[in-house]
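Supplementary Methods S3. Input chains for the assembly prediction are listed below.
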Amino acid sequence: MRIVVAEDLVLFREGLARLLGESGHKVVAAVGDAVALVEAVAEHAPDLAIVDIRMPPDLESDGAKAAVILRASHPNTGVLLLSQHIELGHCLGLLGTPGFGYLLKDRVLRLDEFEDALQRVAGGGSALDPEIVQALVKSRAASALDALTQRELEILSLVAEGQSNTAVATVFALSERTVEAHMRSIFTKLGLQDDGTTHRRVRAVVTYLESR
Amino acid sequence: MRPLATRLLTALATVFVVAAVLLELAAGEVVAAAVDGTGLVALVMAWVIVMRLPASPVGPALAWCSGATGLVRSVDGVAAGAFGDQLASHAHVINDGIWPINLAGLLALLLAFPDGRLRGRPWSFVPWLFILGGVLILCGLWGSDEPTGAALIAVLLGLTLVGLTMILAVASVFIRYRRGSDLERVQFSWLVLAGALVVALLVTGWVLEALGASLAVAYTPFVMGIAVLIPLAVGVAIVRHDLFDIDRILSDGAAWVLTLLASAATFGAVVLGVGQVVHRHTAIGSTAAAFVTALALLPTHRYVSEGIARVIDRDRHVAVVQVERFAAQVRGGQRQPEEVESALREAQGDAALRLMLADGEGWVDLTGQAVDLPGGVVLESGGDSVARLVLSRDSARARRRAAALVRAAWVPIEVSRLRLGLRRSQTRLAEASAAERRRLERDLHDGAQQRIVATGMRLRSLQRGLGPRQASEVDAAVAELEETVKELRRLARGVRPSRLDDGLGPALEQLKESSPVPLDLAVGKVGAIDDSRTLTAYLIASEAVANALKHAQASRIRVSVEKAGDSLAVQVVDDGVGGVPSHGSLTSLRDRVSSIGGRITVESPAGIGTTITAVL
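Predicted structure tokens for the full assembly:
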């Protein structure tokens, strides 16, 4: 797939571009700041933009702000944010939405998982770092999620990471039908009606992440 | 009054005075002419006032104080035959009853001083009553200085009315002094000073007379005093009332005079007393008297000046005492030195008064906000400007009072300035330390961590060309690197939890996650808090929780954060063994809290648990 990489630290940027190239992707642009990122995406219309959350000009959360802009202006380009640590702030609204991912940087070293996340985000799915999901789950206050069973919560947390039912079934050694049954139960408990689209799944994840 | 009228009246008075002097000179009465000539002083002052304040009746009133005498003397001169017998007989008819005119100028002056207006409507009857009384006396004494029957009754009634109006005029002066504005009181003070001197001259006259001096010698200073001092005082009061610190002069002068009299009395009493006991004229008496007098001098003076200050300059005295009491309360710890501005406002009677403290090149208020208002009274210490008092009602008198108050409040002002300076430097340190932690955390993330991950990526690239055995070696190496990154992340969190960027709540949630015992967290709506307070609140909570886990064997911990007014309250309660001393413990927490101007309290009854509360 065609990828734009935005990362201000050269060592990391070149390393990532090289890895991506070796995995068969085409890095169409590798830039060092948020302004250049937005320009590069406008120029190349890539499948995916991999963006460091902390970049020039102000070294705070320019990456996150650029992500919000890109998701609105280029819905066909997935955005995968990379961060050294959990820092949600500006991209809270994007969590769990289609075509958006958020991973800790060291996740890059697990090539298979990383590749999987790239594919999901570029394909309009979502990918969240398990550590982030865990932080959000643990810190949630009393909410609609209290009605869920432990197993349902576990399943939902994997769904929130962006995993498919098949992948969830593999992790818990369940049949796919059982996972689907759990999902239906989750939708009911969260009060989500079936409106014939896949949005219900997304909304469940959003509810899950927002109720932290 | 119309300017023309005041000028005409003053001119008329001048004419009479000059006429009287000329008539007396013509009659060869040089002494009388000299005495009347002193009336010219009043005329000069009157003209000065008329020129300065053409609409004020004070000028003509002052002129008529001597002008009236001039008129009476002129009539007297005419009656004595200065212009022929026919005129003399006419003048003689009214000569006996004309004397109340002597008082007219004084009455007008007393009623109109200092601003030229009467004190309210009822007072406008006073001049008419006076005129009525004067006319009654004139009619009663028409052509005869021994009235009988109806004429006698008219004279008596007239005398009563004239006396009553004079009493009312004097009363009006006292009422004005008691109720008058600052300015009026200063103006009256001049009059009081002159009046007191005139009385002193009168008393001197009595003493001289008793000692055998002639009437002329004894009372001439008194008469001259009336003629010269009173007009001078009126003139100064109207034209240059802030010439000197008149209240101070008045009270200090009176205090010294009274002290002197008291000392003389003491001296005399001791000499007499010793004379009675020893029955011989020896040096013992005067030596003892000198000793006793010297001993009593200073306490007497202090006592007398206190008393006089209370009577003459009551407001300032009360104000200074008020500020001194405040300063004493600050010394005793009952009040905070920072309340000095409100204490000064109250004492000065100026609700918009501002106290500014010197801060480097500029000025700040008591909370440390930069302000710069022009003017004001400067307080200096060792050549440096320490504070400045800016008055909303500024006048020379207000400034003098403010200067006295600022001197009385010197210690609280200096203490608040020093405390403010200390607090500000502590805040700067705390901010610097928060910024340093943030930088360190960033360096860890952007420096070491990035390099490790980059190295990991190179290893992954290398891995592609390797056989399965070497590949698994690389896997192990990369796993090691991942652990190192996690380790670094934990380390950075200890320096400054990155979740603090998302707010205090999320950061404390992270603390809750890592706690092995149940931790109840209650974070109220705290809004936006500055970085150093956020960090301090977090570090207090984390250190208190760590202590509870490590030392108190707590089984449950409660952390609550809420906004209390402008400050942030952090409380950590555990159910552990307690017994933490309330002082001398948690030194690092205390330093941290005090560095941003907060307080921390520890309650730790043994066996019940520990409650640590910090207000930031």
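Chain B has five domains: 3-243, 250-312, 315-423, 425-495, 500-615. Chain B touches chain A at residues 442, 445-446, 449-454, 456-458, 460-461, 464, 478, 481-482, 485-486, 489, 492-493, 498-499, 501-502, 506, 509-510, 512-513 (CB under 8 Å).
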